[in-house]
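The protein record now logged underneath.
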Amino acid sequence: MKRKELIRHLLAHGCQFKREGGSHTIYWNPVTGRREPLPRHAEIPDILARKICRALSVVEPK
């Protein structure tokens, strides 16, 4: 999955940008208070995208 697609999906489901890390971007879900790092690769493996969504309590992308 493309990184931009995953970011769009997270933002559409209520997640917000938190901060930039060394090699990751941190997104968080204000409803649950959970934070999750998003790597800065152009392509993110589907398994990792599903794991990030589950950790942030967001519907998994199709």
